[in-house]
Predict the structure.
Amino acid sequence: MSNVYKLTLEQEFKIALYISKINILTSKSTKIYLINVLKKMMIKDNIIKYCIKNSTI
């Protein structure tokens, strides 16, 4: 259970990619980019919740 809150190596790599992309953006484009990322994360959460809710165990 202690590993639940840790990032995998793949996730750490993705974070590094996001950081490099964000560092080259202007302030306005950074805000737009981050909003789009947050929307995608929320959609992903909704898909996961839907799958869990409708799974037949």
